[in-house]
Specification:
This protein has 313 residues and is mainly alpha-helical. It has eleven helices and six strands. The strands form three sheets. A two-stranded antiparallel sheet has the order 1-2. A two-stranded parallel sheet has the order 3-4. The protein has a two-stranded antiparallel sheet with strand order 5-6.
């Protein structure tokens, strides 16, 4: 039998040192020259840049490269934080004025709401429509080769003007057919054949005229102004009887007095149809001044300050 020799710890350490000395050192590339391998031959290219031992880490990664990669990551993180902060600041919210939220960061105070002075206002159903649908208005629609005309079922001289004239004036707010046609054509026939019956009815016409003007509808206002001109010249002293009621009629005219159409070099066909609101208001005010007596201009000037007299100038 072979015997196993037991070595002491000191002998084992000495044998390990001898064995490590006898082994050749690992081959490393020359630090002073770079080598290129071509067909198995070694060629010296040139002196290589010496690297310090402190530039290399434990894993073979250069410390400078590791440091630069870390700095790039920190820069990207800082850019992301800055962009998130900017985006959070850019998200603003609109709040009402004079509230605690209006003094907070990122809050935008909302402006005042639009008043809507020139916006048309809805009107309530008229009495004229209700009575026509019930059959209490003595008119019918007649069609002929000239178009549609108004036909009365009774003689106009036998009608009660205190009842029917304010009723037809109430229909001036209508904008749908055939109610708008009946009201305008009926007023035209009643004023042309009324005579002395018109003057006592003037106080009853003010409320329908005011209600029609307060709709702020340009079509309705143009119609009311044309009817008002016909009313003033329909009978004597009607213009003077309207002077005390200028405070109810003229505020809306003052509001729309300068609302003209600026067509530039184009053709404005509304002038021929008398639908240019500013010109129609000026024409109506001049007729009221001519037929309103000596106190007409003072009252018109009080309600419409931009009006210039057509009689004194």
């Amino acid at each position: 039998m072979t015997s196993v020799k037991h070595l002491s710890s000191a002998e084992r350490r000495g044998a390990y040192r001898e064995r490590s000395r006898s082994q050749p050192p690992p081959s490393r590339p020359n630090s002073t020259a770079r080598q290129s391998f071509t067909n198995g031959e070694v060629m010296a290219v040139g002196p290589a840049k010496s690297r310090r031992g402190s530039d290399w880490g434990i894993h073979g990664v250069g410390r400078r490269r590791f440091h630069s990669a870390k700095m790039d990551e920190l820069r990207r993180a800082s850019r992301r934080s800055i962009s998130s902060a900017v985006s959070s600041c850019s998200t603003t919210r609109t709040v009402e004025a004079f509230t605690p939220a209006s003094r907070m960061r990122g809050a935008v105070v909302a402006g005042p709401p639009k008043l809507g002075v020139f916006r048309p206002r809805p009107s309530s159903p008229t009495t004229f429509r209700r009575m026509y649908e019930r059959g209490d208005v003595p008119v019918t629609l007649h069609h002929d080769h000239h178009g549609h005309t108004l036909r009365w079922k009774v003689d106009i001289e036998k009608l009660d003007y205190h009842h029917y004239l304010p009723l037809f004036f109430d229909g001036l707010r209508e904008t749908s057919h055939p109610y708008d046609f009946f009201s305008r054509a009926g007023i035209r026939d009643l004023l042309s054949r009324g005579g002395d019956k018109i003057l006592p009815v003037i106080p009853q016409l003010i409320l329908p005229i005011k209600s029609a003007l307060n709709t702020r509808d340009v079509r309705v206002i143009c119609t009311v102004l044309k009817v008002l001109q016909e009313l003033v010249i329909s009978a004597p002293l009607v213009g003077e009887a309207l002077v005390p009621y200028y405070r109810q009629i003229l505020p809306t005219l003052n509001l729309f007095k300068h609302k003209n159409v600026n067509s530039g070099d184009e053709i404005d066909y509304s002038q021929q149809r008398r639908e240019n609101l500013g010109d129609l208001i000026q024409e109506t005010l001049e007729i009221l001044e001519r037929h309103g007596g000596r106190d007409a201009y003072i009252n018109i000037k009080y309600m419409v300050p931009t009006y210039q007299s057509c009689v004194m100038n």
